[in-house]
Write a structure and sequence with these properties.
This protein is an alpha+beta fold and 371 residues long. It is built from three helices and 23 strands. Strands 3, 4, 5, 8, 10 and 11 form a six-stranded mixed beta sheet that branches. Strands 16-17-14-19-22-21 form a six-stranded antiparallel beta sheet, with no helix packed on it.
Amino acid sequence: MKLKKFFAGVLAAAMMLTVGATGAFAAGTQPGSKITPNEGKAMVTLTKQLTVKSGVAPSGMKFEFKIEPGTANAAEHVVAGTVPTGYPNLSVTMTPAAGQTYTAKPDTPYTAEFSFDLVELLGGNATKLGKYAYTITEVEPNLPGITKDNEILNMVVSVVNADKDDPDGSNYAYYVALRKGNATEKAEGKFNNDYETNSLTLAKKVKGNFGDLSETFTFYVTFNKGDATKTYTDILFDKSNTEISITKQNSTDAVKSLSYGETYEITLKHGQHVDFTNIPSDVTYTIAEDTTKEGWLYDVSLAESTVTFAKATATATGTVNANGSVTFINDHQGTPDMGVVLDNAPYIAMLAIVAIGGVALMLNKRRRDEE
């Protein structure tokens, strides 16, 4: 009985492994190994590799790749492959696991695999022994912050007899050799992209002998896309102090991120700042300080001269192409009360001259009396 159970367990395990292996094979085979058709398809797998250097990359990023005929090489007996009419671009969509995001990991890339059928690509050549050249190039991603992999992936597909020792003229297998750009060494079939964004810091500084460091200042902040045709993710932020308020304009509800084209109301005191992050290059911004509140006595200026600033409205504008900062300086100067009425200054000056003259005459008379 025990022996029967043991063999039954072994058989079940073997069946599970067989199913697992079939599923893995159906998904595709890595280039460099022999690919034997399975149910009429010969799948080959490529890899998309994404390195998030800064920010948080969007979920559901779609990358596309175009396959075209390559260059013939008579010395290597390679001919240019053909691409069937209407053959679609290869594509892969990168989506993180549930509850996770593509956070910055400069040393650990995220990966996703995608496959295509060699039999479909080769068309009539799928049953003609020989070597066929193709190129695979990445289509410009419609994603801000993403750097395109500009290196061409050169692919040579070899059509061979499935059984080299006893070919039957009806069963074929395939080998795929990949080389990146002009390299002679074989590649692994990876397309590499970087995701990198910028940050912008909004800070408040108060100075002047009457500058009130406890006063709260209100700002209106708007970010706009650099390219309206691309898909942007929200702008993130970090506050230097928990009492800083960030809401949509004309709303009291706090927000967790900033959308493009929306205006947000932000409150800051002296020494406080907000760091806006996950901003792709070419994004524009407008930051206006509220100068209409009652008792406004501050002269507003900027610390950074590279930012366009309309002093009349205390509004700063610019384009984010690198990490930067905008510091609004509110200068409240004034003249302390020294116990002197400034309107009587001319009369006081005259009295001072008379007093000085009187002292001089007295000293002069004393000197004469002593003589």
